User: Fold this.
Amino acid sequence: MKLVLASQGFTTDEIAKTVESLVEKPLQNINITIINEAYVAKPETSSKRWLIKELSQIEKYIGGIIDFINLRAYDKTEVKRRLQNADMMYIVGGRNLVLPSLFKETRFDEVLKEFAQEKVVMGTSAGSIVLGRQIESDEYWLAKEGITNDQIENKTLGLVNFNILPHYKRKDYQKWDKSFLEKTLSTNPFKVYAITDEQAIVYNNGEISFVGGKAETFGR
Assistant:
């Protein structure tokens, strides 16, 4: 299984070269399929400029076919058919709790797990979080979403035994700083990596590596 858990996508040449190495194809020949449905839960007062910028970075680095799959428009069979020519899947972020529910509702969680056994999956922000293990700290979830972990019906997929915290140290994420994370994740029973928008965590068949420098670690 080859996963790239990023904060904001192809923000650096190093991240792009890492993807190229994992896919084992030149960037100009990579075909990519994008899952882009977590942003819809963002309020109308939240600018989507970040989304346009992130998608433009994909176009900058990826030279093959760029396709989108709308999980509410296609059934499971059609989704699998449309993924056949993809070398990698790219899951865009948005609201944290949207993707676990959507994936379960559409049975895309089954498709994704099957795809991940053969090809590369890259997530950004909430699109990365959904791939990792469910953060268990009630204090963390109460601060982030106003609910406890037990109240979250659909959990993340747990493809790996860790998770990430995106946008670390970014100005609009200053509330979720080191002291907050140390406090709310001190009892979390696995590692959670805080990464900046220029970093990523790579899981390559059991081996974990860092792109853009070693991430800060919280949890046990």
Summary: The chain has eight helices and ten strands. The beta strands are 2-6, 32-35, 66-68, 88-91, 120-124, 163-165, 192-194, 200-204, 207-211, 216-218. The chain has one domain: 2-218.
